[in-house]
Amino acid sequence: MDRSAIDRLADDRFRATFVDLCSRHRVLGLVLSRLTGADMRDGVPAVDEFDRLLRPLRRRAMIFEAKRDHLAGVLQARGIETVILKGAALATTIYREPVERDLADLDLLVRPTAIRPAVRAFAEEGYSLPPQRGRVWTYRRHHFHLPLSHPDGHVVEVHWALSRPGSPFGLGAGAILDQAVAYRPLAGPGQRHPRPEHMILHLALQNLREGFSRLARLVDMDRIIASQPDLDWSALTRIACNEGLASPAALSLRLLSRLFGIEVPEEAARALRPSAVSRAHLAMLRPEHSLLTQRSERTYSAKSLLELWLLRGTRSRASSLLGMLKPKVRVAAYRREIRGWFGRCLKLGKVIIFQLSLYASAAAAQLTRSGRDQMRFWSSQASSSERL
């Protein structure tokens, strides 16, 4: 690790900014665990402060782990086929300790026919659905999971799918359930997790939903690939291409290559790679800078263009642009958008103007070495100084 970067942690302002950045990217537990580890702590400024920050995170991780194992056992006792998704599955399989994987809620995948039994089982444990029946109907029709909350603040999301109905980007929930792998924790009931190839593609789908704005997702993918020397890249590319996830997977893996130095087999990279037109437009969005600054969280136009150029085919992109003019169902608010026709036209206009500004920025980028490297995002190798 860069010694000069470690020394900067002695500055209070830099340290506060650093902790905030790690928290927003949901890697705070991982970073603090590393900085306070026995092999590093002697040379880390303010290590006592990092210890204090880490203690409540460890307690939270332990509580989450206990709840996960208990709730998995509740469903198992009722014969409900369940797969544990995302961080809840990864925290105890690819990380040294659960605190290294930030966890917000428990995501569980069940068959559509098991939604009601699962909800009833969680209701007996004190979890409740959104208060209005109409909200549940809206979730079932327009979304892919139901949130259940406990009075202590813990949230369980019961999935029957992994993307909204009609989304051009998806991942078959049935295949994940059918091909899930068994995992036996040191304590608690046995669990089922997605196979590694499905896990990577689900993370690519999450990257897309979040506008590629979380380092934690890439760290997950990096750890999975490092822990799976026999990863079936041909199966991964086949599933990605069949499910419409080839481009999101390609962008995720390219970011991994540039930022973490992960080597992706050339055959897989070639099979997943978007068209030359899409690659050029995605490079204009400066994926590395956008990721680290979380631009897509702040800018609707940036996220919209990212999704647009990850689509394949002119017809799909034209349909996406026209779709911006249609009223949307906001599942979180359980009502149609207040924004009227004029407002939707204004949103589309902002997207078009933002794209024009990217053309101007791309032309100006050719004047500097770093700018040219950004525009060669798909073909150049990252320098060691750029890697995390």
Give an account of the 3D structure.
Residues 333-338 and 382-386 have low confidence and may be disordered. With 388 residues, the chain is α+β, with helices and mostly antiparallel strands. It has 20 helices and eight strands. Among the domains are: 59-194, 2-Layer Sandwich (Beta Polymerase, domain 2); 286-386, no CATH class. Helix 9 packs antiparallel against helix 10 and helix 10 (215-227) crosses helix 12. It has helices spanning 3-7, 12-24, 28-35, 47-77, 86-90, 115-124, 133-142, 173-179, 196-209, 215-227, 233-243, 246-260, 266-272, 276-284, 287-293, 295-298, 300-310, 314-323, 341-365, 369-375, and strands spanning 83-84, 106-109, 145-149, 155-159, 181-183, 191-193, 329-330, 335-336. The strands form three sheets. A four-stranded mixed beta sheet has the order 1-2-4-3.
Uncertain residue segments: 333-338, 382-386
Question: What share of residues are in beta strands?
Answer: 5-15%
> How many strands, what sense, and barrel or not for the largest sheet?
4 strands, mixed
CATH topology of the domain at 59-194: Beta Polymerase, domain 2
CATH domain class name of the domain at 59-194: Alpha Beta
Number of helices: 20
Q: Termini distance?
A: 9 Å
CATH architecture of the domain at 59-194: 2-Layer Sandwich
Order of helices and strands: HHHHEHEHHEEHEEHHHHHHHHHHEEHH
Structural class: alpha+beta
In angstroms, what is the radius of gyration?
22 Å
Adjacency order of strands in the biggest sheet: 1-2-4-3
Number of strands: 8
Helix content: 55-70%
The 3D shape can be described as globular
**Mean pLDDT score:** 90
